[in-house]
Specification:
single chain, alpha+beta, 29% strand, 4 helices, 6 strands
């Protein structure tokens, strides 16, 4: 059974994420579990996520960026009040961050860091040659 669509194509926050993510070498977008995901061979960013609280309650974060960061960077991000550990992906090191207060440069840095943690060495070379 397919997951229901959990985003609005016209969401201006999604457009901000797309503009950054799809500008990276060989990046593409697909729908994964009802939400936009950005990938090369592996997913490097998700738009929107769910947090499961200790109480068992599910909290939706429709305008969040989920990224895979180095553990030290993830620890710093998780100290922010607008961050969360996403359900299912959190145990693998992914972190979620509400993006309404992120500027484009901060968002780009998070997306590029996650891209570097998932992309091939060849794609990282291409990225580095364009920066």
């Amino acid at each position: 059974m397919a997951h229901p669509k959990m985003f609005d194509d016209d969401d201006p926050m999604l457009e901000r994420v797309r503009a950054i993510a799809l500008n990276l070498p060989e990046a593409a977008e697909k729908i994964s579990h009802g939400r936009p995901a950005f990938f090369t061979k592996k997913i490097f960013a998700h738009y929107g996520g769910t947090e499961k609280l200790v109480s068992g309650k599910m909290v939706q974060h429709p305008q969040a960026l989920l990224v895979l960061l180095d553990p030290m960077d993830a620890e710093v991000v998780l100290d922010r009040p607008d961050s969360f550990v996403p359900m299912y992906l959190g145990p693998s090191g992914w972190v979620g961050l509400e993006i309404t207060d992120l500027d484009d440069e901060e968002m780009r840095e998070l997306i590029v860091d996650s891209y570097r943690n998932t992309a091939s060495a060849r794609l990282i070379e291409v990225l580095d040659s364009h920066e």
